Amino acid sequence: MSELRHDWRIEEVSALLAMPFSDLMFHAHQVHRENFPANQVQISTLLSIKTGACPEDCGYCSQSAKHDTTLERERLLPLQEVIDSAKTARENGATRFCMGAAWRNPTDKSLERVIEMVQAVKDLGMETCVTLGMLTDRQAHRLKEAGLDYYNHNLDTSPEFYGNVISTRTYQDRLDTLDNVRNAGINVCCGGILGMGETRYDRARLLQQLANMKFHPESVPINDLVQIEGTPLNGVEKLDPFEFIRTVAVARVMMPKSYVRLSAGRAEMTDEMQAWCFFAGANSIFYGEKLLTTENPEESHDQQLFARLGIEAESGRVGSTYM
User: Is 61 a catalytic residue?
Assistant: First the structure.
């Protein structure tokens, strides 16, 4: 079985990314089969429960109040609307329901409203995940008490490239929130965004940061930048699809027991590119026509692709890999 390592050197990660493509695919697929069913994919659905007017300046995000993207500000969704969306997601095969709010950090009052949503979704028999920005230690423990399964908080990119993308929150801020989440006993969902103008070295450093955590994130979302008019990163050179697939493969090799999720950007991926990603070890997707504010493939298209590839939706694997 693949060894769980937390001491990766940057030279090792760079060497993996530079392997001949076929060799890397073979290696990653072997690791994947050692740790997961080869033809199963976990399905999650993501809902924006509070959209727009975020005070952060993330260069990729349409929800930043600092960018002119014409996105309308919306209040926190009513509880019943969230429950109805979760029921629909469950009927369409999703086993995990993720909720995102455009906040720098939640107030305690807002957190209690989100907790009502978490508990209602749990009552439907689904895993729950939220992404709410930075959390204090006390807030993380409050979410754990409420039964939250996963908390998403991405590192986005390498420590060195991070300042080119975001100035309103430091890299250490992100690491501190992840520590608070992990210390509370909540599963961690943490990954990054590719195609923001970073180098291969930056992608290697991102993977090194993730894999050298004390515990690997249970879910590792790999996003392909969706360029949005009005954001600073609109117009950057698009990433070579093979480079994206390579990064997915190396994530699988370095974090063999983590779910590696194809997240934002799938609407612009060809079926062939997604098939290579699944072969390379991606075994989770977001399902539904929209991810927060960006487009996603329709459920029917995903169902057709799964049928063509002989992939089936995972029925559910509740609980933490490590805790």
Answer: yes
